[in-house]
């Protein structure tokens, strides 16, 4: 989990190579080639008219959290094992897509939540196998490289 958090911090600090691919009035999405796997990294950025704590409540990875209510790509989120007050093993499921052409997915990750001195909040996750969560029938087991979210306070 700590390695995933550090990898995300490296992405955040390195502005090189990001190319814009989509933008609305609220969100800008960029991509760049990954140095870890044959594919691309993606990041979405936006400024929300809310306190960092309110935004964090919407995105933080916790069982019973708000993410399953607003994110159509997250069907369920459950904690498999609590490692510490900031680290846990979690299972996320996604619904089928494209008229069920794409099967539902499940992801099992080690997740860490951090808060930094400047008020930035971070969740970081990466794939893990866990004996309490073997692959489930009717789901395709997905694999996450280091991924996560930052909630960064903006003055004003």
UniProtKB/TrEMBL annotation:
GO biological process: cholesterol import
Keyword Transport: yes
UniProt-recorded name of the protein: STAR5 protein
Organism: Cettia cetti
PROSITE patterns: START
SUPFAM superfamilies: Bet v1-like
Its biological purpose: May be involved in the intracellular transport of sterols or other lipids. May bind cholesterol or other sterols.
Gene3D superfamilies assigned: 3.30.530.20
Pfam families xref list: START
Gene: Stard5
GO molecular function: cholesterol binding; cholesterol transfer activity
UniProt keyword terms in alphabetical order: Lipid transport, Lipid-binding, Transport
InterPro entries (alphabetical): StARD5/6, START-like_dom_sf, START_lipid-bd_dom
Location of the START domain: 1-156
Signal sequence range: none
């Amino acid at each position: 989990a700590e390695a995933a958090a550090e990898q995300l911090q490296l992405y955040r600090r390195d502005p090189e190579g990001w190319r814009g691919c989509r933008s609305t009035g609220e969100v800008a999405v960029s991509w760049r080639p990954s140095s870890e796997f044959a594919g691309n990294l993606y990041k979405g950025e936006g400024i929300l008219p809310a306190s960092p704590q309110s935004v964090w409540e919407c995105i933080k990875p916790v069982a019973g959290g708000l993410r399953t209510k607003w994110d159509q790509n997250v069907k369920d989120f459950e904690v498999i094992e609590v490692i510490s007050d900031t680290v846990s093993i979690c299972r996320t499921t996604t619904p089928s897509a494209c008229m069920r052409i794409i099967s539902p997915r499940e992801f099992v990750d080690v997740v860490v939540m951090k808060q930094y001195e400047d008020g930035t909040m971070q969740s970081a996750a990466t794939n893990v196998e866990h004996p309490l969560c073997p692959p489930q029938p009717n789901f395709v087991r997905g694999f996450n490289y280091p991924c996560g979210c930052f909630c960064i306070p903006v003055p004003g």
